[in-house]
Amino acid sequence: MIAVRVEAPYASFRKSYARSFAETYPIAPPATVYGMLLSLVGEWRRAAHAGVALAFAYEREPKVATVLRKLSRYKYGVAAKQSKMGNAPDYVEVLCGLSFLCWIESRREHGTRAQEGTPRLEERIVEAIRHPERVTRSGVVCLGMSDDAVDDIALVEEPIGEWRLLVPRDDGTMDLPVWVDHVGALDTRWRRYHLAPKAPLTGTPPLDHFVPILDPRAPAP
């Protein structure tokens, strides 16, 4: 198991059912963080590290700002609409000052990388952070959209200070996607979470705070 600290000045995580007003999830969805980690290590296959489990803690709850920016509405399947009406200015919610910890547990990975017997996500993240010159990727590492660049990703041995653990709970107030179907909604999966009050962190989060990233289209391992 490893932990990384992620910092980004701003990012927008458009809610799955947002329409004319692009509301954002209140924190970074696990599915988005998983995609960022794949980008960090230069992995193109989304299911490469399926089965990895992630847990999170936030330094603070990000502030929400509303900005006017270009918004894409018809990305898939309607090229004519996209070219004429798809990219237009509209109001978009943006989170400001993201700073969080992400723990990565790879023991139960069963994705294509595990099947090939190649290094798992934990090992690849350590390699990417210590030797970034060995990673080949397209563009910079982003948290969400391509213009939401990450300021810093660093390995953390022992968290310092007080943090707000993100706790998976059936009665949680946040419904966050852990796997996104980018074409439709059939294979999108959500999990409810609760952002706990600030408290000093000692060691790693409890095992029940870790949520596996699973491809719903793949057969059960």
SSE layout:
Blueprint lengths: L1 E10 L18 H12 L11 E6 L4 E10 L6 H8 E19 L6 H5 L4 H10 L21 E4 L6 E7 L5 E6 L9 E7 L3 E2 L10 E2 L9
Antiparallel strand pairs: 1-4, 1-5, 2-4, 2-6, 2-10, 3-4, 6-8, 6-9, 7-8
Helix pairs in contact: 1-4
Pfam family, one: Cas_Cas5d
Keywords: Antiviral defense
InterPro entries: Cas5_Cmx5_DevS, CRISPR-assoc_prot_Cas5, CRISPR-assoc_prot_Cas5_N
Description:
By secondary structure, this protein is of the alpha+beta class. The chain has one domain (2-58, 99-212): Alpha-Beta Plaits, CATH 3.30.70. The protein has helices at 30-41, 79-86, 112-116, 121-130, and strands at residues 2-11, 53-58, 63-72, 87-105, 152-155, 162-168, 174-179, 189-195, 199-200, 211-212. The longest helix is centred in the N-terminal third of the chain and has 12 residues, at 30-41. The model has no long low-confidence stretch (mean pLDDT 88).
What descriptive keywords fit this protein?
CRISPR-assoc_prot_Cas5_N; alpha+beta; CRISPR-assoc_prot_Cas5; Type I-MYXAN CRISPR-associated protein Cas5/Cmx5/DevS; antiviral defense; 10-stranded antiparallel β-sheet; 33% strand; 10 strands; 221 residues; 4 helices; Alpha-Beta Plaits; globular
CATH architecture: 2-Layer Sandwich
Percent of residues in helices comes to 10-25%
Structural class by helix and strand composition: alpha+beta
The radius of gyration is 17 Å
Round the mean pLDDT to the nearest integer and report it.
88
Largest sheet: 10 strands, antiparallel
Terminal residue distance = 21 Å
CATH fold category name: Alpha-Beta Plaits
% residues in beta strands: 25-35%
Q: Total number of β-strand segments?
A: 10
